[in-house]
Amino acid sequence: MRLAFVGIQLKRLYGLVLLPFLLTAGILLAGFVLEDIWSLSRIRPVMMVLTQVPVIAAGLSTAFVLNGDPIVELAESTPTGWRKVQVTRLLIITGANLTAAGLLFIGLHVMRLWPHDMGWVSIITPVGSIFMVNCLVFLIAVLTTSMPTSSLASIAIWLFLCFIWDPYFTDPVRQRLIPLFIAAAGTIFGWDMCSDAERNVVKVAAL
């Protein structure tokens, strides 16, 4: 029964599940091509930009799958509940993006193209970014049930990480430790709020 439920959600989200892997393949291909024609000093700034694309895509994809669904009332009228639907979708989209981010890091690390590479521990940076963005977008989606608001929130979180937080913390562990605690707390709060069936139906019906 659980596998069937996950399968139903995967069928609805298959395009967004494939997206991070397509992005990873495209970025790795770009790195492979540039490696033969440019020096490492020229390629790495390009990779700094390209490696941020999966983080942005992950946040926007999560905002899309968690908002504006017309089956809220139907889900709340069954034993499944809307919370199970939302959390399953969050886990599917986040799992796909985390897997793709890991593959991207491994590929660029082997090619010596990962920006500010400090060894295998640097995988914490992309994986932590996506986990944090997706968890906080889940919270925003629960609070607002608005795709535009959730999308803007994902961009704002990414901008904060990229331009304010990360430049001051170069060690990957310190860089992601506090944000991950905040994201985990936000997810727990969102999980609790998502159990309010009446609120879920009323907010979506008001859209």
Q: Describe it for me?
A:
The chain has 207 residues and is an all-alpha fold. It contains nine helices and no strands. The chain has helices at residues 2-37, 40-50, 53-65, 72-76, 81-110, 124-144, 147-165, 172-193, 197-205. Helix 1 runs antiparallel to helix 2 (40-50) and helix 6 runs parallel beside helix 8.
Quick recap of the structure?
It is built from nine helices and no strands.
Keywords summarizing the entry:
single chain; 207 residues; mainly alpha
Helix-strand layout with pairing:
Layout: H1 2-37, H2 40-50, H3 53-65, H4 72-76, H5 81-110, H6 124-144, H7 147-165, H8 172-193, H9 197-205
Helix pairs in contact: 1-2, 1-3, 1-5, 3-5, 3-6, 3-7, 5-6, 6-7, 6-8
Unreliable stretches covering 5 or more consecutive residues: none
Order of helices and strands: HHHHHHHHH
Largest sheet geometry: none
* SS class: mainly alpha
Rg for CA atoms:
18 Å
- Percent range for β-strand residues: under 5%
Shape: globular
The span between the termini is: 32 Å
Number of strands: 0
Average predicted confidence as pLDDT: 86
Helix content: over 70%
Number of helices in the DSSP assignment: 9
